[in-house]
Amino acid sequence: MKFRFKALERQRHPDQLDSPLLLASPQGWVAVFTVLITTVMIGLWAFLGSLPRSISVDGMVSYSGGVESVEAAVAGSVTRLAVAPGQVVRSGDVLATVRDRFGNDTQVTSLADGRVIAIPSGLGSYVAAGDVVASVERIDNAEQPLSATLLVSGDLVPFVHIDQQVNMSVPGVNPRAFGRLKGVVTAVSDYPATAPIEGSQESPVYAVDVQLLPDAATVSGYAWTSASGPPAELRSRTPVHAELSLGGVRPVSYLLGL
User: Fold this and answer.
1) Does this model's pTM top 0.70?
2) CATH architecture of the domain with range 67-138
């Protein structure tokens, strides 16, 4: 019987069954452990980590005394306007004169010390008794500080709390160069500032009072996120755009749509 050479050679050198089998190279195991550790770390961060969350709201800087609406006592024509918007007035100062249909003149006087912010009734216009002739922002004294009022949607009000810090951007002020106006929440209204519209899906808004932080080193007299702030005064009735922090949220909440 003849055997092939290769078969005889295989009989002389059988398979080494007791030798270890190499499943992966050391470099492969390093890659596997790297992927595994990275996956575990991402999972821990998703459940235990926190991402900052904030909202943008609008508001206005003003004096805390509020606005007095000065009304006409009689119906007639406005024959004289003694003031202009922006003018400072004292309580009792004459703002306008209204002449009734009998030719009698009635003076409209300011109810408080402050600054005229609006005159809705122009010279020569007709006003009815009770119509607003002028609006005066009450200023109790020259040292009275400015404050800000923000309008926050009702569904976000629970995230706003007293002593919460607020940064506000001001129109005409470059935030990169001069920073943002700094303040702290002092009060949140218990009732909506605007009545809900029937059938509307929008939530009513609430007024949030913000105290501006003082800083004598700046031109405006108020603190900014930059060291010096803008080289200009801060005026009442200036609109602001604020960022309110809603706290942190777990990253997994975004994946689950929570």
Assistant:
1) no
2) Beta Barrel (2.40)
